Amino acid sequence: MPRCPYGHTTNRTRLYWRDDPDPYNGRMTKYQRIGLRIAISTSVGVLVASIAVVVAWRNIGWMSNFQPEQALTHQLLEVMEPLIETYCAETKTVPQSWGELHHTVEHYSFTHNKDGVPLDGWGHPLLYSVKEGHPVITSCGRDGKPGGIGVDHDLSSDDKSTPTENRPTLVQFLLHPSARGVLLTCLACGIGAFWLSMMTVNPSALHGRAALLLVVKLALTILGTLIVAAVLSIFHIPNHH
Predict the structure, then answer these.
(1) What residues contact residue 196 under an 8 Å CB cut-off, 6+ apart?
(2) Exposure check for the chain: N or C terminus, fewer CB within 10 A?
(3) How far apart are CA 47 and CA 29, in angstroms?
(4) What is the reported pTM?
């Protein structure tokens, strides 16, 4: 039986040595275990939700169903360019403004403003210019201003493909009304990962093989929830047809 500093024998569970800095011998209290479990589970949940959002942004944000106005503008540019080229071939002249193409615009029932200028998918007037004797049609994107990034980036008949600059930024994706269902799915998966981690994590066994096993379990939890998030996100892709 150990002696206390005052010379009396005592039970160590009641009175500890003065030079013993950790009376629990490295063991965590009940509240410390709960706190660590919550901290680890919260980190896993936030990580899963964040990765799910990024994956959804990279895989869904550029789809035509998600950005129907941009897809419609691309279609307009593809349709109007050959019509203008046909006009040039028939008249042997290159029109210098939309005014000279007024009859063409009305004949093919393009949506236009009161001045006869065709509108893009966002309802902004398309710009017409002539560069090196070649007609160019330009849309200023969602904001209707030259330049911009993401869905605000300009679209031109000179480049009818979908360049990386035209894909929505992460902020534009998060603020887009059509992304609400996808974001809720990502949040739900993050919450699911949190609760799975709460049931899996055992803070008192964070050493040796037990720690390695915990890492494997957490990795499988993250992978599983991300797969579920990817599958569920598909059902929340908006359909504008």
Answers:
(1) 221, 225
(2) C
(3) 27
(4) 0.68
pLDDT of residue 13: 45
Strand order in the sheet with 134-139: 127-131, 134-139, 155-156
Q: What is the mean pLDDT of residues 144-169?
A: 82
Q: Which pairs with CB-CB distance under 8 Å and at least 24 residues apart come from 19-26?
A: none
pLDDT digits (tens, 9 = 90+) for 212-241: 777 777 777 777 766 766 666 555 554 444
Q: Are 157 and 44 in contact (CB under 8 A)?
A: no
Interior angle at CA 232, CA 199 and CA 235, nearest 5: 160
Give the end-to-end CA distance of the chain in Å, rounded to a whole number.
83
Q: Are 123 and 110 in contact (CB under 8 A)?
A: no
- For 110, phi then psi, to 5°, come to -70, 140
